[in-house]
Amino acid sequence: MKATVEQLASISIFAQVPPNQLASLQPHAVIQTYHVGEIVSHEGDRLVPGLYALLRGSLRVSKLATSGKETILRTLTSGDIFAAPALFGNGMAPATVTAESEVEVLMVDRGALLAVIRHSAGCSGN
Question: Domain residues for 27?
Fold first, then answer.
C-alpha cells in the first residue's frame, strides 16, 4: 500500500518537509502491515535500502545469544525509526524486529529520500 502525505508527515524527521516534497516521496513510500508475532526482519537479514518507520502499533527489537537466550533491546512505538543500517550502513538487520500488535511499517526508498534531502539542501540557499 502506498503512503499518504499525511502518513509521511507523521514521522518526526519529515515534520518540517514541505507537502510538495513529501508528495514527491509518495511513489517511493510503501506501507506493510504485520500481525502479532510476525517477524518484520531477522537479525542478519539483508534489508531493502531505505528509511523504516513505525506508523502504528508496537514492535519488539531483540537479539538472540548463542545460548538461545533472547535479549529485548527496546520496544518501538508509533513514529519511531528503526533499521538504520538500511539507510546509513551495511544493509544488514542488527536485530530481530517482531510485531507485538498489529503494526504498519513505512519504508521510504533510500535513493528517493536522498534526492529530496539534496533538493532541500539546494533550495535552502546554502
Answer: 5-123
